[in-house]
Structure formats: C-alpha cells, structure tokens
Amino acid sequence: MRPEVPDLSLTPLTDEAGLEAALAHSYREPILLFKHSRWCGISHRVREDVLRVAAARSVPLYEVVVQTARPVSDAIARRLGIRHETPQAFVIYQGQVVFHASHYAITPDALNETLDQLDRACSSDG
C-alpha cells in the first residue's frame, strides 16, 4: 500500500538520459535517488520510508525499479562509482553523492540528518 504523499515529486528513471537530467537537477537542489526491487520485502519497507521523507521535505525523488531499468541501475553504479545494491538510496547535491546507504541502513533519521546538514550548509553559504 502506498502511503499518503500529496507533496511528493517522484520521477521514474527508465533511461540514461533521465539519469543525466536527475544529476543536472542536483545542481539546483538536493535530490534523492532510490533504487529498488519490486519483489524484495526490504525494498518495499524502505521505499515507504523514502517516500515519506521525500514528501515531508519536498525533496525531488528519482526512482529506479531494477527489474525494468537494469541498464539505468548499472549506469548509476558507473557514474557515481558506487557498487550496485538493492535497495539503495543516495542524496545527491551539485552532482556529488553526499549520502549513500543500502538495505536497513536507509532510515528516515539518516536521510533527514543528511538533508538537515545540507540545509545548514546552504543557509550559511548565502
């Protein structure tokens, strides 16, 4: 069941052009990138948390379903230099990975802490 997420900006990534657009977007604001398997219980539970954080924080969320977009998943591993896992979450800002976790290390607290740190850094810059 999908949680209520009325303010969620969710963009499915299905090709490498979409990945490049997501990375370009990260130069304007932090983004969340989430890779998962539709058939994995861990992925399902973690996805609910990621959706809630993205909606609560109004952070753009880009999502890769590995079964239907494996080439994109492989491109993420190559482009970001981080080995493929699933589920896997990234916070990306200015083209750089500022947070990465997989499986049960993907928590609302970890995502929120990273986004809070970025908020503080951005507000002290400007």
UniProtKB/TrEMBL annotation:
Pfam families: BrxC (PF11009). It comes from the Bacteria. InterPro entries: BrxC (IPR022551), Thioredoxin-like_sf (IPR036249). This is Bacillithiol system redox-active protein YtxJ. The lineage of its organism: Bacteria, Pseudomonadati, Rhodothermota, Rhodothermia, Rhodothermales.
